[in-house]
Specification:
By secondary structure, the chain is mainly α. The chain is 75% helix and 0% strand. Helix 6 crosses helix 8, helix 8 runs parallel beside helix 12 and helix 9 packs antiparallel against helix 10. The protein is globular, with a radius of gyration of 19 Å. One of its GO terms (molecular function) is ABC-type transporter activity. InterPro entries: ABC-2_transporter_component (IPR051449), Motility-assoc_ABC_perm_GldF (IPR019860). It is a multi-pass membrane protein. This is Gliding motility-associated ABC transporter permease subunit GldF.
Length: 240
């Protein structure tokens, strides 16, 4: 499994695309945080990273499919999938290895953003940032990225075209992130069902963790979604 994980890491960083994707991710976050007037944290008047944690998921929604689009699609396209099957690895080990590789890459992209929290803490005149909420939000971002990684790998296992894998992965991430919340706001669900429909969406549980309270139900939800999509990927690989 760790062989596959290492292979994913090397495949991503052996091309210029990997470095460009992470550089764009950090550049966009920096621009939203400190440059653009409507979102600049310097204009808030108080130390808070709430703006960063509200729009970062949208940037992750495009970054993670970029990481995962070549994961299995390239194996099909390049003919290396046949070679991969000859390795002494089960389908689950291949899938989990690719998932761990994508999650580690995503974590590498997120780690530099900790500088933003340190900067806001240093710039604050009184009190500083809410450390509990900030820590919870980072946990939420990590879990969100892990779910997006599982979805991206799953969509990559259905095609040998990386562009199709990216578009499909990004669309499915978007749908699961905001779709249930949008449906819950329909008038027909105003009788109390709206809350339960919204609970099915990723955004509901991400916002819950971002408040600084790590609820077991939210962890179970994220873990369940990850396992579900990885099982679908595993089943698809076995069929091939």
């Amino acid at each position: 499994m760790w062989m596959i994980c290492k292979k994913e890491w090397q495949q991503f960083f052996n091309s210029l695309t990997g470095y460009i994707a992470i550089a764009i991710f950090l550049l966009l976050n920096g621009l939203f945080l400190f440059v653009f007037p409507d979102t600049s944290l310097l204009d808030y008047g108080y130390a808070s990273l709430s703006g960063f944690f509200s729009y970062c998921p949208w940037i992750l929604l495009f970054l993670v499919p970029t990481i995962t689009m070549r994961s299995i699609a390239d194996e099909y396209k390049g003919g290396t999938f046949e070679l991969l099957k000859t390795w002494p690895l089960s389908a689950s080990q291949i899938v989990w290895g690719k998932f761990l590789g994508a999650v580690i890459i995503m974590l590498v992209a997120l780690l530099p953003t900790v500088i933003y929290a340190v900067s806001m803490q240093q710039l604050s005149a009184i009190g500083g940032i809410d450390k509990g909420s900030t820590a919870g939000s980072y946990i939420g971002l990590f879990l969100l990225g892990a779910v997006f990684s599982a979805i991206g790998i799953c969509t990559s296992s259905f095609t040998n075209n990386t562009v199709v894998a990216f578009v499909t992965g990004a669309f499915l991430c978007f749908l699961l992130y905001t779709g249930f919340e949008a449906v819950s706001k329909l008038p027909v669900f105003k009788n109390g069902a709206d809350y339960y429909i919204e609970m099915l969406g990723i955004n509901f549980h991400y916002n819950s963790i971002s408040r600084g309270v790590v609820d077991t139900r939210d962890i179970v939800y994220f873990a369940s979604v990850i396992v579900l999509f990885l099982l679908i990927t595993q089943r698809n690989i076995i069929k091939r």
